[in-house]
Amino acid sequence: METEVQRSVSLRLNRRGDRNNQFQQNRDAEGGLFSSERLSQDYPMKAVWKRGFIRLFLVGGIVWILLILTVLLFHIWSCESSFAFFSAICNRESKVFVVLDNMGLVPKPQHRCPIPIANDPDKVVILQGRTPDKIVQNLSYIVEDKKNEFQSPPLFGGHQSWLQREKSFRLKSTMKVHCGFMQNGGAEMNPIDINYAKKCRFVVASGIFDGYDTPHEPSDISARSKKLFCFLMVMDEISLDFIKKNVTVKEDVDGGLWVGIWRLVLLKHPPYDEPRRNGKVPKILTHRLFPEAQYSIWIDGKMELMVDPLLILERYLWRGKHTFAIAQHKHHHSIYEEADAIKRRKRYARPLIDLHMKIYSYEGMKPWSPKKGTISDVPEGAVIIREHTALNNLFSCLWFNEVNLFTPRDQLSFGYVVYRLGGLFKFFMFPNCEYNSLFVLHPHTREHSSVVEWVKSLDEFKTNKTGLKESRGGLGLWTPYPGNLDSVILPPVARTSKAG
């Protein structure tokens, strides 16, 4: 009996299970949303979509990276391009270019070359004595304008007349000329800096104005040169305040300020409205700022010196018995070529550059040619190496007077002064590739912002309501010139360099 009951229960359970299986099969047959067949079909589709999304994401990322790399490579290529248009749009001072250069992605400049310098600064024999002054033996400076002749406030460069300018080019054994630093004209040094500079016989000088740069510590300076040379960084108050906020400045027991090896020399009351013109004071008139110096090496403020200064003096002065050395410009030989480049690159007011060149052309300055006795009329003025002889000091004064009278583009005036001295001023113009091997060029902290650079016509200067016209410099461009410039036609300029 019991066995029959168990059999009956077992049959009922089997029937119930069959019905459940049949119900499940019917649902699957009807295509339920969660049928095993449907699920088995959905898994491959989801996998395909997932793989496709990942591939799309990866491809998009690769395309984006390639696009960025293309832009960066184009930026590098434009700076090295032989096409004038692309080389003109290159900005080597941009943050992108600086980062790429630091990463080693920018090709090393091909315009550098080895400098034939001595190997050991300790073995350099310092030239004893001074080069004798044979042409100009006594040089003095005009420091005060004649009383009641001028009603305007004192000027740093003085009120040099056209007649005084003309006489200054006539070399004599005894001469007295304008050379900046007129009484009450500005650019005063602190007494502690004056006292410090009195002991400096060998000087490496540089300058920073309007906060465009910060001092860069020179590299590979020997212990001998550190003792022999004074490293003097001349600046205005704006730059000093900027440096104090951005660089560690130390003060010695005498009150002198230092950034590394550089002694900071403050020029109070900048003499000019234009920062670029202020920068010409320590650059050209180094012998006036530091009158006890026998030798000086000038480098622009954005440069980091890489060669021991004692080796520089041996290479560029003593070895060839020179007293003045300056590099040849990379692209231009004629001042008219340089003037054209300045106008195209908007580095100063175009009409004033033209007026400057018209005066030089009227006074007989011809475009450079191989027939001239000089390698070039246009220097690369960021490095100047000189012995402070009387003739070199006179040349520096005359060069500065041209910058004071006309435009602050000193590369236009250098060759003119050489021309006016009739070959009596001797100098060594060394290859540009050596110049580029002397230093590392750093970008400015910011771009120059002089509105004068964008002036297109003299009418914009009229009445000076715009503030464009400088009040203390360039007055020779506004003083009636003793000659008819209307008939002057500037020499035609053929662009000889893709980057110039």
UniProtKB/TrEMBL annotation:
The chain crosses the membrane at residues 53-77. Residues 139-444 form the TOD1/MUCI70 glycosyltransferase-like domain. Pfam families: TOD1_MUCI70. Keywords: Membrane, Transmembrane, Transmembrane helix. It comes from the Eukaryota. Coiled coil: none annotated. InterPro entries: TOD1_MUCI70, TOD1_MUCI70_glycTrfase_dom. This is TOD1/MUCI70 glycosyltransferase-like domain-containing protein.
